[in-house]
Write a structure and sequence with these properties.
413 residues; alpha/beta; Rossmann fold; GMP Synthetase, Chain A, domain 3; seven-stranded mixed β-sheet; four-stranded antiparallel β-sheet; 28% strand
């Protein structure tokens, strides 16, 4: 089942190459259906035939969803009926339970947060309003029309609502905002509080959708500084480079396990590096636990960019960056951004005698067919490579003022 087209991408052109797949029986198209396909409007207009009772096992795969994670190639993540239902049944710990509670969902269904957000209300029996595509003004209209009390999203979504609130738009019914899937600036939580919205953080990934979640009832300092406590049944270990558990307050790699964690990758060869001998999942993220068991995610072992909730592989973009004729050396890193949480940034050593600006990099990425969100939005020019810790140094360049031999340029968005 697919749309005919999304923006410039023709899904039907892609599907035409799958016609020889033996198990593909029908293609349902939302919109005009070409010959050999079934129109969605025709499908729902017919009287449904009785369905035989399902014989699926709880541990059968029911969801295949892709994530870039911390590698360059997308990975197929497998969830079973059991793991997905465990995630959906965590609704009381995640969703507001007041009798007048109404949720607004704006995550795209191709993101694991979207899958969960679309299905969880069916389990919880809660009133929910769905958006087809994110638009802050449209969100404000829906919040007012349906008296929405809570919603969730990335810093990008929250920032869009707060920008309108700062301009005088009122959001009287909106009380809570669960924010995650990207770095959450402290200033954003404070802005939300000033607007009467209690924002709180969460932590998860496609493989383990909800590891921790905060609460709107937590004090402001807790909501600013932590990503909340583990869901019921979820366990967290923080380990050092030697694999041993570290004490509270010390950073280490975050390992998780729990009933809602995935069962493995489509490519089972990837499982070996993901699970340790005791069955704990290595997240690739760094963090620490406080004395109350709350988690704070502090960094990633392998750099990716999480822009507005979308995970973007740095290594994939570096191949494009290094193909520019004026680039001698370069790396892609995440730069902090108040609106998106992070944006793609490039640190470049130009070819001797060459001059390169951010617009040149942007045009090069456009010609290569990269999406706009994967195009560098900030650029630092450096005069020399700084040794084997080049990538780490490059990341730090966006966390402090530039020096005399560096130049920062920001592309207007």
């Amino acid at each position: 089942m697919t749309k005919e087209r999304w923006r410039s991408e023709s899904y039907l052109d892609r599907i035409s190459g799958y016609r020889d797949v033996r198990t593909l029986r029908d293609v349902v198209v939302v919109g005009a259906a070409p010959a050999g396909c079934v129109a969605w409007s025709d499908l729902i207009a017919t009287t449904p035939a009785p369905l035989a009772a399902s014989e699926a096992d709880a541990d059968d795969v029911c969801l295949l969803i892709y994530t870039s994670g911390t590698t360059s190639s997308p990975k197929g993540v497998l969830h079973s009926h059991r793991t997905l239902l465990a995630e959906l049944n965590s609704a009381p710990a995640v969703m507001a339970a007041e009798p007048d509670a109404v949720q607004l969902v704006s995550f795209p269904p191709g993101h694991v947060a979207g899958v969960v957000s679309y299905l969880r209300p069916m389990v919880a029996g809660s009133r929910t309003v769905f958006m087809d595509a994110w638009d802050p003004a449209q969100a404000v209209r829906l919040i007012g029309e349906y008296s929405v009390t809570s919603t969730s999203g990335t810093p990008f979504h929250l920032s869009g609502l707060l920008d309108l609130a700062d301009s005088g738009v009122e959001l009287p019914s909106l009380r809570e905002f669960l924010v995650g899937a990207a770095t959450v600036p402290e200033s954003l939580i404070r802005r939300a509080d000033a607007a009467g919205i209690r924002a709180f953080r969460c932590y998860g990934c496609t493989e383990h959708p909800t590891v921790t979640v905060g609460s709107a009832d937590d004090p402001l300092d807790v909501r600013i500084a932590t990503d909340g406590a583990p869901l019921p049944g979820v366990s967290i270990r923080i380990v050092g480079t030697d694999g041993n558990e570290v004490v509270n307050g010390v950073d280490g790699e975050i390992l998780t396990r729990g009933p809602d964690r995935f069962i493995g990758y489509q490519d089972s060869e990837l499982d070996h590096d993901t699970f340790d001998s005791a069955g704990w999942m290595r997240t690739g993220d760094l963090g620490r636990l406080d004395a109350n068991g709350r988690l704070t995610v502090t960094d990633r072992i392998r750099d990716v960019v999480i822009r507005g909730g979308e995970t973007i592989s740095s290594s994939q973009l570096e191949d494009v960056l290094l193909s520019h004729p004026a680039v001698a050396e370069g790396v892609i890193v995440a730069a902090p951004d108040a609106r998106y949480g992070e944006v793609v940034a490039a640190v470049v050593v130009p070819v001797s005698g060459a001059r390169i600006e951010l617009i040149d990099i942007a045009e090069h990425f456009a010609v290569a067919g990269l999406a706009r969100q994967k195009t560098p939005e900030r650029l630092v020019l450096a005069t020399r490579c700084r040794g084997p810790r080049w990538a780490r140094f490059a990341k730090l360049m966006f966390e402090r003022p530039t020096s005399a031999d560096e130049e920062r340029d920001v592309l207007g968005r």
